[in-house]
Amino acid sequence: MSEIVLFCYPGSPWGAKVSTYLALRGIEYSECHQPMTWPRPDLELLNIRYRRIPFLAIGRDIFYDSLLIFEKLETLYPESALGAKECSGRALEKLMEKWAEGTLLKSVLCLLPKTLPLLTDSNFLKDRKELWGMDFSPEGLEQGVSKSLVEVREQFSLLEDLLKDGRSWLLNTEKAGLIDIHAAFCFDWVMAGVLPNEFLSPDSYPNTLKWLERYAHTVAQAKAKGPAPTLLTGSEMAKLILASEFSESAGPVKKDPTGLQEGQTVALYRIDDVSSASQHRDVGRLVTLTEHEVALEIKAKAADVELRIHAPRWQFALEAVDN
Ligand SMILES: N[C@@H](CCC(=O)N[C@@H](CS)C(=O)NCC(=O)O)C(=O)O
């Protein structure tokens, strides 16, 4: 099995989502910590323009977006996978994943503790304004707090309904499943700074609050029990990845609504922020195109070595580029 390297930084909710999954699975991996803001010089070594965190290398294959990362890890390590076994559970799991990104995360952002030092760091504020078009200063976030609480209350009601029959985990599994990670990670990121709160009280949401406590406890236990990830510097990471094999074969390139063809030079970028379309485009040779995944071959900068970058089709655009 190829080495796994997670690109993340402490404090990233999405990075924590993936490290939580790896800890619950007991999968060994390394971490290469990146600055919280752009530029990220380590990525130059690989010739990667992708702006978001996390992404994961398995050998010379680089997977963008936790959505695809989980799909790959569930397939590569099928024994005691955390994903739902039945179709209806899997569908609910996917809906929960997208609900968390499209709805929950936006609701909880303004609940971040306003005393966090980075919220007064002018470099961070400028960077996030350019990426999201949003004001992350304590005053900017404060304006959204009441709306956030109204929304989180609604979301807690939905979770309370799911948990009302006394189950420990959302799909009534014995252990926390992937769906629990999807639904809990945003709340887990901010709740310590929010609770106790009269609008999110144990009287109104007893099962949801217990479930969140259970989640935090389970994750802390798993992280304490397993080996801590090895921390790699940028040059150690590049040396390791560039000397690895591909972890899977390329292809197929299926007939696709974009009309793109195998071997064509294409640009890949995210469509859910303000600056990726213009500033964070990866350009390479199209080698895989299916309903769920795209992969491009690019050449690393640190050595004459090809890498494959993979992304889900959700929230990413692809377009032909003239050679
Ligand atoms: N859908 C993406 C979302 C990733 C995301 O938005 N991550 C945040 C950090 S937690 C980010 O990249 N922010 C800008 C940055 O760190 O450069 C995933 O699941 O990986």
Automatic annotation (TrEMBL):
CDD domains: GST_N_family (cd00570). Pfam families: DUF7962, GST_N_3. It comes from the Eukaryota. Residues 86-241 form the GST C-terminal domain. This is GST C-terminal domain-containing protein.
